[in-house]
Amino acid sequence: MGGSPQTILVSQGVNYAAGIRRRHVKMSKRSRRIAMKRRSRRMVGGSEGSRRPRNEVGRRVNVLKKLIPSSSNTMGIDELFKDTADYILALEMRLKVMQIMVKALSNASDDDVDNNKY
Known about the structure:
Blueprint: H1 5-11, E1 14-15, E2 20-21, H2 29-45, H3 56-67, H4 77-115
Antiparallel strand pairs: 1-2
């Protein structure tokens, strides 16, 4: 036996640094394709947090275009963000107007109830 644990593991076909056992087994084409995709993701992605697909940003931009009423498919991202900010401000204004209307109507109904008391 006489060797360090690292030497023994390497000689048995285990990658000591990664802790992954190398198998010499014939794999099907599908399995090889899946393994290659996983390997390329690890190499390209770098860290664990960067596993998001590259088209994720494009998908989110398309969802945003559907949410904003004045947007079109031909507008750029800068214009889309500007329209989004304008739309958010318009929605905030609508909300404030509705809150004022609710206060005014609830105060008016409270006054009606107070006037009808004997």
